[in-house]
Amino acid sequence: MELLQIEEPGARGDALDDAGLALGLELTGTALRLAASVGGNAELIRNAEGGIDFLPALAGYDEAGVLTAGLPGLADATSIGLDALTIPEDTDARGAAVTDRVALLITTAGRQMMHRIGRAVAGAAVVVPLDSTAGLRLALMQAIEAGGVPVLRLVEASVALAWGGGLDQRGDGAYLHLVSVPSGVALARLEVADGQVRLVGGSVARHVDELPGLIAAEAPLLGLIAPGIAGAAEIAASASVPLLDGFDGEERVVLGAALFAEAVG
Questions:
Q1: Taking the alpha carbons of 258, 260, 262, 265 in that order, is the dihedral positive or negative?
Q2: In the chain, which stretches have pLDDT less than 50?
Q3: Less CB within 10 Å around the terminal CB: N or C of the chain?
Q4: Contacts of 59-68 spanning 24+ positions with Cβ under 8 A
């Protein structure tokens, strides 16, 4: 198992003294993603095929009629991705609530982790989107803890991405992260000080043409993070802000959450 590569030599004692792994946990619209951090080294926990999604966000019933999560091909299968938690009390065809199904997905993931790695989970930093509501955050936290994983902290996706891309090592100051949201493009202002990253504000632009002016209003900035944003280089140039690299890749967010979990755990 590749996670053994990030063990600190000589750091493991008796199993009863093992504090467990610090996890980064991200529930996307379609899957559960996990990463672990040991000694400041974060590693994605991949599925059996080597993909970044540890388990699909599905729940249904097996041949015996038992509620099961994380497997395709189940009877009465429903999606239990992040969007489903916007209505946490919603039930499936047989009466199980969304929060119960998500909790079972977390329990299933924990059992698989223990089987594969042989270590307990100390807790997780759980990724939440920038535009998530207080109700969604509460439902997500409650479902994860009901699944047996202590929530160390909820961490905004922009902060997790910053950790995953090493923003904390680029120097103290303010940076801006651009991310697509349903209403347009969100601008998250991140501040780095003494190796820590904080989200300190931001705004939303409905049209790309608004971005250079909004970015300039956030000055002084040391850099712009904009993975997946069309025309990012041109937007950065128009606002006279350096465009930073090293933040691409979907796994960066959950890896950063794992680093954050170890730092605050």
A1: negative
A2: 1-16
A3: N
A4: 59/92, 59/96, 59/101, 59/104, 59/105, 60/92, 61/94, 67/94, 67/96, 67/100, 67/101, 67/104, 68/104, 68/108
